[in-house]
Give the backbone structure.
Amino acid sequence: MRRAGIDTYRQPVLYLHRDCPVCRAEGFAALTRVRIGSGGRDTVAVLNVVTGDWLGAHEAALSEAAWQALRPEPGALAEFAHADPAESCSLLRAKVYGARLGEQDFAAVLRDVLAARLSDIELAAFVTACAGDRMDLDECIALTRAMVAVGDRLDWGAGPVLDKHCVGGLPGNRTTPIIVSIVAALGYRIPKTSSRAITSPAGTADVMATMTAVDLNLGELRRVVEREGGCLASGGRIRLSPADDMFIQVERPLDIDSGGQMVASILSKKAAAGSTHVLIDIPVGATAKIRTPAAADAIARRLTLVGEAMGLRVGIRLSDGRQPVGWGIGPALEARDVLAVLRCAPDAPRDLRERALDIAGAVLELLPESRPGRGREAATVALDSGAALEKFMAICEAQGGFREPGKARFARAFVSPTTGRVACINNRLLARVAKLAGAPNDPTAGVVCTLREGDPIDTGAPLFVVHAEAEGELAYALNYAAGHADILAIRSGPE
């Protein structure tokens, strides 16, 4: 066996030459699922057939995922056989054809997902079959429970454990680090774990990774929370609803974020994290993830009902999703906005500050002893007094130390072709520019946009500034912007 040195993420891949005797005798063809055994370990991998001369007929090359699964000794031999079909394949096909699945059905699918018995193609079929309105409320509850059951679950003991989540779709809406710092500064527990970005230019974990360590294991996370009352960590190493992480890797290239699966994803991780009170922010806007008030009401109802079934008190906040929040879009750029708000800097984005205070207040008012309006008052005092900043820095230190976010090597403005006022901002297209510039893979890449609807703009003035680590990505993002005049639509004419 050879180490191919090819990253296929979680999908184990086997490479055999087309003239390999095993390939010919067993009738292996491209994309066949093959069971590999070596040194007492085994795994199932997808076969890729090599036609060039870089692999010999008696050699087997393994992708990084397959190599890590087998960890063979130098010069080790391997045995190959056809992999048995996953037990859940029939359930997957049933769902594709519209059947309703129960908790045990979903559990069977998730077990095969975690054991790598389903290929990415089969995972994509399952994700697609559950997208849209293809999962009813009972199925959503069943999937949520099954996702919790196959992972770890935290227990923080008696008393409230607070959490906050945003369904996403709004560039730059990085309120979470501010809210966690405020709530923890006021003496409440808020162990916050977040995923990396799925379809956006940055997630909370991506933003925090520009300032401190986020890939904490279970013991490290518990120590941070016990010391500081809160954390701002990635959920990748903790196995809280681990099957969801597998779904995310399929959803990302498909650019799918299904409503039913989104509810199961959010609430399974909240339940597994030991949360008791959860505030969920749902931005609503024509170019946000949730586009209409009716769609927002539908997902809010499902979140509330599934939350009740999971023993969670869920609060819902519908917010303005017409335009970005904060100036930066991209991990380091959003981190700079977060720090500006926490530091009460005079040039901090006011919309980010106000939204963070509103949501922090709503989180605090989930507590039974809280009275309306008092939550925001307490949050404002914690922020303005510097207590939130102090707590944020303490959390960063507990997670491994604080560092200032970096800056991109290149930055160039995209200018207005006319004079007028900003009529509307397309969140999706603006986020796309940030992604083409390299975000979130390049943490310093993204877009800075300080304009809002109704703001005046002159010909040749910057509509936004693109930041990138490579000139090619900078040019790519700017070329895309040039072909999409409606990213920031300008109503022409004098002020």
